[in-house]
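Cross-posting from the chemistry board since nobody answered there.

I work mostly on the small-molecule side, so proteins are not my area. We synthesized magnesium ion and want a rough idea of how it might sit in this target. Sequence and SMILES are below. Is it possible to get a predicted 3D structure of the two together?
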Amino acid sequence: MTDTIAAVCARRVWDSRGLPTIEVEVRTSSGARGQGIAPAGASTGRREARELRDGGDRLGGCDVIRAVELAISVVGPRITGIDVHDQEAVDAILARMGPEVGGNTTTAASLAVLHAAGASRGIPAWAVLDAAPRWMPRPQIQIIGGGAHAAHRTAVQDFMVLPLSPTRIADAFFEVAEVYRAVGAVLAERGPRRGVADEGGHWPEVTGTEDALDLLVAGIERAGLVPGVDMAISLDIAATQFASADGYGVGDRSYDTADWIAELDRLCRAYPISTIEDPAGEDDARGMRRAVATLGDTAVVVGDDYLVTDADRIEAAARDEAVQAALIKVNQVGTVTGAARAVAAARANDLSVIVSARSGETEDVSVAHLATGWGADIVKVGSITRGERTAKWNELIRIDEALGGLPLAPAP
Ligand SMILES: O=C(O)[C@@H](CO)OP(=O)(O)O
Ligand SMILES: [Mg+2]
């Protein structure tokens, strides 16, 4: 059944940091409709698809008026008339236009086409990708935010937990919510609460990485769970943010690559850390390889900025033994098809797959559908607070229900 793209419109909407972003809406000749909104990162890799922002003084240069105009005047005419079910054909055109119209514009358009394709067949987006997923992705949930999401109050960006013992996603959320509350209670005992970081995790009112890790362990225990058995810790080091030609600068200390990875190895042996993302900077291939060789037997080394959802980079990094899992973000590559190729490259090389949202998000729930439809091992969308995060978690609850209740993906 073909159903051609009949109309494309776009508008400026707002993200969770109060910044403008682009929403694209696609309509088909049968009357089906799909929408997609581009998310935005704060700790972005230099090889990511470039966003088109207006520049100048308005909103710190972040406005997207030009992107909205181009979605209507350039993207619309070029994808109108194509079968909405041929995502690859649409995405090939979008990928070619990327440098001209921006990765934010192509991301929103590509997601809109995916949702319109589902609507055209009367099925949800996850079912467009896989009609019968075998599991639900395991949620990796932020408890304390740091790094670029908390004014660099800590060097490390994401202090997360990964529920191990629950077999259903609803139970996993319940346990994580208990841990979030428990960590909040410990923080309240220590002094005034200072709100949340960009992804809804507690503000990092901590003295450093180990203090944050101690807090997580205390919260897990206070929730009546056993650290490392019921609930593991996941870190996104986001090391690109504090990497330089001289090494890694943390507080008043500076580490060379070998010392930095040795320090992370020490933490991975002292705490129940199951996954560690971007332990080295985006250009530090030696650091990533060293992380896999040194700590890869205790924690899964995940590539984010290092891979930027690029199938070729994933292929090469797997060959080099520089990663053990790939983080997948559609807007790093600019299209659903580009990200699907990255997932396929990860799978072909026996890497785990983590589908991730960005720190600047909206009510768009595409990531829940992509993580389910691509059979991701883990899904990462920030904390268990704030509407732009719970929109995704709650959608995963609905998807699991629609699927009749699936087991969670095996823990790493
Ligand atoms: O680094 C990351 O993995 C993401 C999500 O936490 O952050 P950002 O969207 O700011 O790149
Ligand atoms: Mg990251």
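Reply from a structural biologist on the board:
Welcome over. Reading the output above for you: The CA atoms of residues 30 and 273 lie 50 Å apart. Residues 236, 238, 277-278, 304 surround magnesium ion (ligand 2) (CB under 6 Å). Happy to explain the token format if needed.
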